[in-house]
Amino acid sequence: LTCRFAARAVEVAPLALVAGLVIALTPSVASARLALAGPATLALLSSTVSITVPATANLGSAPTGAGTLSAHLGTVTVTATGVLGLLLPSFTATVTSTNFTTGGASAAETVPNGSVSYWSGPVTASSGSQTPVPGQLTAAQAVPMSASLTAFASSGTVTTITTSWDPTIVVHIPAAVVAGTYTGTVTHSAA
Length: 191
Known about the structure:
Shape: elongated
Distance between the termini: 43 Å
Number of helices: 0
Radius of gyration: 19 Å
């Protein structure tokens, strides 16, 4: 028997699950506000952060009890824009995961999110003068996704910065899971 893992990511909710391991990489847009007081006015300035994620990802398949399955999710890109001369751009991107399930999601039909690890890898592309910091640079630093974790962060010295990376998901397949098509959701957000 084999466990087949496939993934599909979308940028908008709700997500219609399809056959395969569905990974919805949900973007978010966040704003930070800075209030400047003058003699008779109050101005609000905004720094914006946006994130784009791959539309689909496929993690492949492996026999039950086979150990691990590893695959890249595709490029994640964050753009942060400050306010010229007043507010520098910066962002922190986080990532979470649900359990991966099949059938009725019984214990034998569930790969818990703690058995799914993430590592961001290095910057694959960037623009603007910035200091990008990967959350997990190497496979040795992969982190179980049982809680929210930092995927990437950066701060810039120009008005707009863009940072991209191609994260890897590692599924540690529990020996007791049954064969099937497992689905789950991985969500990236940035602020």
